[in-house]
Design a protein that fits this description.
This protein has 370 residues and is α/β, with parallel strands linked by helices. The protein folds into two domains: 130 residues, Enolase-like, N-terminal domain (Enolase-like, domain 1, 2-Layer Sandwich); 222 residues, TIM Barrel (Alpha-Beta Barrel), CATH 3.20.20. 35% of the residues lie in helices and 22% in strands. The protein is built from twelve helices and 13 strands. Strand 1 and strand 2 form a beta hairpin. It binds 2-succinylbenzoate and magnesium ion. The site of magnesium ion has 7 residues, from loops.
């Protein structure tokens, strides 16, 4: 039985290759919280996917660090048998903060699997060696800039393209991209809650473009609005922000609010809850795909392992490291080959850290004892 020794909360600054603009904001540089947990059986690393501002969800990186240091880590240290599988239960008394909780579970999972010489994919019982890779494309000032960017990703071989949309940037860019890439390549859109129920008729005009899905067009608490849109739109509706747990996934499916589910481990409190949602959706015949939070090689490695499960039948937002970063913090960053990324086979979550580069980009680090 391993015991907890310490936790390191390390902040890094990582420039994006190009600004990433969504309906909720634009980012040029990421401020990322990494978590290292030292145990009697060795270390494990996790990545907290909370962003700098609370604009995708209520969480943000400064708050995540504070809640870990002052509320989550002390609780974990009081557990009789601290283990990845019990993190969610031990921390349930703290409301919310799924991304902060997920990073702790992730670090313990990494430590446990490394100690056992096992990798996450095998731990999940997943079989695939590689998974199809999709790319998320931001909002641009002009159609020309968008088309040039998309053409680059098509040339890179991505298995599907996802366009960020918002009111005023939807039908025209989607039509232009569909026209450029032809009918065969998978195309989908993501509004990050930018529309309202009064936009339902407008959103149904996206039916002309043969999209795989429309991701989270309405506010996260508007399940009935999504159900109404799902009835009226021929294009499947897929929730992202609204799905914060196994329970909300079940409710959204039963309400007809989501016909496909985007699974993001950080948003639902960890990889184990993500796996439960996958199992639920597989049982219900609801297709799932793995979302992304612009993770480093730590999070992307774990996402690839998750996406190797059989219910992940649509390409995930698991793009090459180079889509967002010039240099990653891992030795073997994820690449796209023939539209796929390889599922890592190394121990733990499957990455190996580039410690020199990590030290170079560290902006702060604190270590707390157990
Ligand atoms: O809504 O899917 C989203 C990135 C940050 C926050 C929210 C979202 C995204 C993406 C990410 O679209 C894509 C990626 O990580 O490749
Ligand atoms: Mg999304």
């Amino acid at each position: 039985m391993s015991t907890l020794r310490e936790i390191e909360l390390r902040r890094i600054a990582l420039d994006l290759v190009t600004p990433f603009r969504t309906s909720f904001g634009s980012e040029e540089r990421r401020d990322i919280l990494l978590v290292r947990i030292g145990t009697s059986d060795g270390d494990g690393w996790g990545e907290c996917v909370a962003m700098a501002e609370p604009s995708y969800s209520p969480e943000f990186v400064d708050a995540a660090q504070l809640v870990i240091a002052e509320h989550l880590w002390p609780r974990l240290c009081q557990a009789d048998h601290p283990a990845a599988a019990s993190v969610a239960g031990e921390l349930a008394a703290v409301k919310g903060h799924p991304m902060a909780k997920a990073s702790l579970e992730m670090a313990l999972l990494d430590a446990e699997l490394r100690a056992a010489g096992q990798n996450l994919r095998d731990h999940f019982g997943a079989r695939r060696d590689r998974v199809p890779s999709g790319v998320s494309v931001g909002i641009f000032g002009t159609l020309d800039e968008l088309l040039a960017q998309v053409q680059g990703y098509v040339d890179d071989g991505y298995a599907r393209i996802k366009l960020k949309i918002e009111p005023g940037w939807d039908l025209e860019p989607v039509a232009a991209v569909r026209d450029m890439i032809g009918d065969e390549l998978g195309l989908q859109v993501d509004a990050n809650t930018a529309y309202r129920r009064s936009d339902i008729a407008h959103l149904c005009r996206l039916d002309d473009f043969g999209l795989l899905l429309i991701e989270q067009p309405l506010p996260e608490d508007d399940l009935l609005g999504h159900a109404q849109l799902a009835r009226e739109s021929a294009t499947p509706i897929c929730l992202d922000e609204s799905i914060v747990s196994w329970q909300t996934a079940l409710d959204a499916i039963d309400l007809g609010a989501t016909e496909i589910v985007n699974i993001k481990p950080g948003r639902v409190g960890g990889y184990l809850e993500a796996r439960r949602i996958h199992d639920l959706c597989l049982d219900r015949g609801v297709p799932v795909w793995c979302g992304g939070m612009v993770e480093t090689g730590i999070g992307r490695a774990a996402n690839a392992a998750l996406a190797a499960l059989p219910g992940f039948t649509l390409p995930g937002d698991i793009s090459a490291s180079s889509r967002f970063y010039r240099r990653d913090i891992v030795i073997d960053p994820i690449t796209v080959d023939d539209g796929h990324v390889s599922v890592p086979t190394g121990p733990g979550l499957g990455f190996e850290l580039d410690h020199d580069f990590l030290d170079e980009i560290t902006t702060s680090a604190i270590t707390l004892p157990a």
